[in-house]
Write a structure and sequence with these properties.
Helices cover 42% and strands 14% of the residues. It has seven helices and seven strands; from the N terminus they run H-H-E-E-H-E-H-E-H-E-H-E-E-H. Helix 1 runs parallel beside helix 4.
Length: 243
């Protein structure tokens, strides 16, 4: 029953957000703060799903370019990671998102960047353009470098594209880690805690193109360690308190 109730609420909310957000983005198409605005709305859905978010973010100057790299777990990322998307930030998504009715069009209108991951030449070209855009406009970019949802498999290996872009643009890398969301079940009233933490920025200005793979490996280890730490903390917070 709860699953049906929540599904209906989500459906209604998504329709309202689609209409309202679509009109908002049409008034200022591809504005640098559209994604932050839309993300803040989606993150407010978390309590309706029974999720308590614990946010540990850094205060970011939205005029300074940064590349945020997050762990991509499942569809609930839409309601958790979105809580820490700063102003002046757009995300990088696969080109096929554009074909999802309404959502795809709003995703593009918001200012997000679409990439054809199945075509390496096209993907590399897009990433190079992203690096130039970062340098010219001071825009920040949010990327899920695993390239796909992990779906309970922990942190997957990171693809090097985000790190080539960071080095080419000179923008620092900011790892963002959310604790496990595997326990979330829309049929449960209380879906516990998800902790989201932004790690310290990693400077890339002194790095060369050849350093991209080692940078990706370094970021992977930092994120993996933090994920294990946050998972342990979240589990402790979700344990029933002794009477």
């Amino acid at each position: 029953m709860l699953l049906i109730f929540r599904s209906l609420i989500l459906a209604v909310l998504l329709v309202l957000v689609t209409i309202g957000g679509g009109l908002y983005c049409l008034l200022r198409p591809r504005h640098r703060n559209n994604v932050h605005f839309m993300a803040s709305i989606f993150s407010k859905v978390a309590p309706i799903l029974g999720i308590k978010l614990i946010i540990r973010d850094k205060k970011h100057d939205d005029t300074e370019s940064q590349i945020f790299v997050g762990n991509h777990q499942n569809n609930f990322d839409l309601f958790t990671h979105t809580a820490v998307v700063p102003k002046g930030t757009v995300s990088l998504g696969k080109k096929s998102l554009a074909w999802i009715p309404f959502f795809g069009q709003i995703y593009w209108l918001s200012g997000n960047i679409l990439i054809n991951r199945s075509n390496r030449h096209s993907a590399v070209s897009t990433m190079s353009k992203v690096a130039e855009k970062i340098k010219q406009t001071g825009l920040s970019v949010w990327i899920f470098p695993e390239g796909t949802r992990s779906r309970g498999r922990g942190l997957l290996p990171l693809k090097s594209g985000a790190f080539h872009t960071a080095i080419q643009s000179g923008a620092p890398i900011v790892p963002v880690v959310a604790s496990s969301q595997d326990h979330i079940n829309l049929n449960h009233w209380n879906n516990g805690v998800v902790i989201i933490e932004m790690l310290e920025p990693i400077v890339t200005e002194t790095l060369e193109k050849s350093d991209a793979r080692s940078l990706a490996d370094d970021v992977y280890q930092r994120m993996k360690n933090k994920l294990e730490e946050l998972n342990q903390e979240a589990q402790l917070l979700m344990r029933p308190k002794a009477l």
